[in-house]
Amino acid sequence: MNTLAAPNYKRIYVWEMPVRLFHWVNALCITVLIVTGYLIGHPLTLFRSPEAYQQYWFGTVRFIHFAFAYLFLFNFLMRLYWSFVGNRFANWRTFLPLKKVQRHDLMDVLTVDILQIKEKGKISLGHNMLAGLSYFCLFLVGIFQILTGFGLYAAMSKSWFAGLFAWVVPLFGSDGVTRVWHHGAMWFFIVFIVVHIYIVFYHDYVEGRGTASSIVGGWKFEREDRIKPDSF
Ligand code: HEM
Ligand code: HEM
User: Does a structural domain hold residue 2?
Assistant: First the structure.
């Protein structure tokens, strides 16, 4: 047997277009919401004019925050729909360790990649189970931001849609308390982004099968000798 022969790789279409579109629109929205949200919480004194009426930059920042808030919500709803009609890699079940095999996958990621006490484990084609769980947490915090954000917005908007969330602020007690929670949750997104981007490039390098570019083109590459019948 020629042990030096390079393994053959098969090109597998994993992330469908709606998943990729959701990913980048979501990444853009979260980035813009963090920057504008941070500015709302800590306004700069950089752009000052002698008279308040001569400037409107803070209003523009708030407008951008609210516009991207709507985009963030509708993009999320689109992904929710796609988790029921998309391919098996996009399915809602990939985000939760419901089956025994998924819990086994979770242990593999923890022991191999995180604790590094085991050398080799299963390499998933779609999300690995720990990644899936981290996305599920991101979706939950996203819903929390939508509830508290539209709750705050209800008092400053005439739109019937924002009005649907008028019950949120009384639930938290006051506008101030709701803002503190809304502000605090921003840090979850910041930590997620740092860890997520690091891990994507780590997997890309260690596994060498195009993880990072898969969320652009949709394709991953798998060694033919590792493909199992249920890999597709
Ligand atoms: C604001 C920044 C980002 C956020 C909030 C974010 C969020 C997410 C989410 C929620 C998913 C799950 C997608 C789904 O199933 O619908 C995901 C997957 C993915 N993201 Fe990101 N992402 C960000 C930036 C990036 C960047 C810069 C890259 C680099 C190429 C990247 C690469 C990937 C890849 C490759 C996957 C699929 C990974 C897997 O196999 O589990 N992401 N991301
Ligand atoms: C990733 C999601 C989001 C992040 C990271 C985020 C972040 C922030 C931050 C840090 C603040 C400043 C809070 C403070 O210290 O006073 C803020 C304010 C606010 N956000 Fe968000 N936000 C997000 C989503 C949303 C959504 C979906 C809405 C829905 C409309 C929204 C509406 C608001 C409102 C109304 C304010 C108060 C504006 C003001 O009083 O001038 N946010 N946001």
Answer: no
C-alpha of residue 135 to centroid of ligand 1, in Å: 9
Total of domains in the chain: 1
Q: Residue 144 domain-assigned?
A: yes
pLDDT at 1 over 60: no
User: Whole domain around residue 160: which residue ranges?
Assistant: 9-44+53-227
Q: What is the CATH number of the domain that holds 120?
A: 1.20.950.20
Q: Whose CA is nearest to atom 38 of ligand 1?
A: 127
Q: How far apart are CA 70 and CA 74, in angstroms?
A: 6
Q: For residue range 169-209, what is the model confidence (pLDDT) as tens digits?
A: 999 999 999 999 999 999 999 999 999 999 999 999 988 89
Burial class (CB in 10 A: 0-12, 13-18, 19+), 139: middle
pTM over 0.85: yes
